[in-house]
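Researcher: Structure prediction, please.
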Amino acid sequence: MTEHKVVVIGAGMAGLVSALQLAQQGLSVTVVDKAEQAGGKVRQIMVNGAGVDSGPTVFTMRWVFDHIMASIGTRLENELRIKPLNILARHFWEDGSQLDLYADPHASYNAVVQFAGRSEADRFAQFCKTTREVYDALEGPFIRSPSPTMAQMMTSLGPRGLATLASVGPMRSLWHSLGKHFTDPRLRQLFARYATYCGSSPWEAPATLMLIAQVEMDGVWAVEGGMHALAQCLMRLGQARGVRYLFNSECERIELTQGRVSGVRLRSGDSLHADSVVFNGDIAALRTGLLGPGVKNAVSGRVQPRSLSAITWSMHAPTSGVSLDRHNVFFRSNYASEFESVFQQGRLPAQPTVYVCAQDRGTGETVDGPERLLCLVNAPANGDKRGFTPQELADCTNSSQDLLARCGLSLQLEPSSSCIRTTPQDFNQLFPATGGALYGQATHGWMAAFARSNAKAQVPGLYLAGGSVHPGPGVPMAAMSGQLAAAALMANLGLTKSSRPAATSGGTLTH
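Model: Predicted structure follows.
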């Protein structure tokens, strides 16, 4: 067979996985990216000489990466150092209350007993049972399926799966459903937060997204060297199999010949021949013509509302006050106002929830002096339409810092030599045509998950991967999309029999 040349546009998680798996099959693969290094949204910022993970920070769904490594003849433990976290996340409220959730379900149950009483702990136990059932019902017919449809999924679910979905009420919002599970508003708020893992509002996201809670309950790991080390690992494995990586090389256009992909043209003026192209980027860039007019209609279906963006502070600074763990969430009492501001008004929230990833904690290390931190608040994805004024940014910073202080944490969220701020406008520059949306489209309404494109574009020879296509956003889900894109390409060449990731037991879903 004549050598089949593939160009992968984007060295994000999905692009790295696609390139690795295609090279493993013997194809000639080149990855191009406008950034200086691999990772895409899995990026690291140097702050005062310390590398701070400034994108996704939670490593879940380990089985996805176990499968990827097995497919190329190695094991995850041979390539990365990872440690399971005992505490999944630490949660704080401005009333002074605090709740840790643990990898050990019995420890979590006992923590909820101390936090909200035994009756509420029993409700928590029932909620965990429900999330397990929902996850198990949807993992095969939806998450693993290359191109799920409502009809196919309903057929695959069978009577038991359909009964599980009916009991949850998939037409209900996540917020409404959680109100049926919990009487303590803090627990309702805590588990509603999982809607933001796919960039959505709990008031608009379907109740089935409660399965994301099961993802963390199935395990959270810390990667030595940070999440960025995962991207570097995949790149290193790709290089060993002949993948060529071209950084600082922005793709200007996907070239077509007689309606079929024939290569890419770079901003430098150089052209690369390609028999197939894998596009690892937000499909909005295709639809708006940023990759050329020939691929504007490469993605079918209606344009969906954008997901959340964020304001982040990448820091290397000392902390004092409350004891942090690896993953920490600081809540306010008026939760609804955050999502009203972001999704309905297009404004920065006046009362944001604050996530803090303390990257030197959680695995038994002693922290002495400055530590690596990522602080994040949700924001509207309008970075291509307007920039927030200095006063708006200052108000958001002050409100966030005030919440941390009232919860007992002393932290200076001020851009300086020890703090680098990133806004939706900055994210839009990093990921064009998104407005800074970090999760593709929002998952609002029961049918939203079925609106995502599958791996095969409408243009012959073009394949899609990343968080804006099926199965959705988050590091492991994007990795799965990379697998599906590679498998679809190979299947078109008649070199594989299936595009579905192999089944495992005890799988989980993402951040």
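Model: The chain has three domains: 5-46+53-82+225-300+453-492, 86-217, 305-430.
Researcher: Thanks, that helps.
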